[in-house]
């Protein structure tokens, strides 16, 4: 009798603690957990909150701004999920391994990995130093490799995984003064396709999201020496995209609604280019 009462109490407690399950994450034995790199602001923050709104526990990652990470984590907790803010530079394998170990200790697994962290400095090709090249590659390409390598064993063991890489339409178009950024970003496309093929039998899907011009805050004006006010005249839809629209694209790809999509690059650019 006591055992039955306890089980009923535990069930009610869990249902109260969690928001209603969305059809995007059907009821399973386990709740979903997600790691979003570079999620202190902009697209990363919007993605964390979208995932949290669908019931996923989240790891909020920032490189150095603890206050931002804590603020986003608090927003996620307000949606009824667990949120773990962790400072880590994804360009450091040691810091990535430590971050994933903490996440695994807290959640037991990582089901969803969103590789969003990036830097996008502009520099003429003949002025790019080896240090510049390695700095961009370290965050964009190496960082995604470190994070994916760290979570993949858990995904393989559980036979469930959803991985997203972020590129950008600029990388596909090849803009001037961003050879190092374009090279690193396009490397993600190649890694995505190979991983999608290799791990599909383990129910692990891997895709790329490539945003066009998105209305975001730019905290590093030195990266944009010729920065101008946003101009949407070249966008057929007549406006910039919103971070929530990119988060919704991510949500579709990691959900069961996008269950037959893997190894693809999805361009959310308002119709500015076709690839």
Biggest sheet architecture:
7 strands, parallel
What is the CATH first-level class name? Answer: Alpha Beta
- Looking at the structure, what is the overall shape? globular
Instruction: State the helical fraction.
Output: 40-55%
CATH architecture: 3-Layer(aba) Sandwich
* CATH fold descriptor: Rossmann fold
Q: What is the H/E order?
A: HEHEHEHEHEHHEHE
Count of spatially separate domains: 1
Q: Helices and strands: which structural class?
A: alpha/beta
Structure summary, number of beta strands: 7
Supply the key terms.
Rossmann fold; 275 residues; single chain; 44% helix; alpha/beta
Please specify the SSE layout and strand pairing:
Blueprint lengths: L1 H16 L15 E4 L5 H12 L3 E6 L3 H12 L5 E5 L5 H15 L4 E4 L14 H29 L2 E6 L2 H5 L5 H21 L4 E8 L31 H12 L10 E4 L7
Helix pairs in contact: 2-3, 2-8, 4-5, 5-7
Short description:
The chain has 275 residues and is α/β, with parallel strands linked by helices. The chain has helices spanning 2-17, 42-53, 66-77, 93-107, 130-158, 169-173, 179-199, 243-254, and strands spanning 33-36, 57-62, 83-87, 112-115, 161-166, 204-211, 265-268.
Question: How would you describe this structure to a colleague?
Answer:
The chain is globular and about 45 Å long. It has helices spanning 2-17, 42-53, 66-77, 93-107, 130-158, 169-173, 179-199, 243-254, and strands spanning 33-36, 57-62, 83-87, 112-115, 161-166, 204-211, 265-268. It has 275 residues and is α/β, with parallel strands linked by helices. The chain has a single domain (32-215, 222-268), classed as NAD(P)-binding Rossmann-like Domain (Rossmann fold), CATH 3.40.50.720. A seven-stranded parallel sheet has the order 3-2-1-4-5-6-7, sandwiched between helices. 39% of the residues are buried. It is built from eight helices and seven strands; from the N terminus they run αβαβαβαβαβααβαβ.
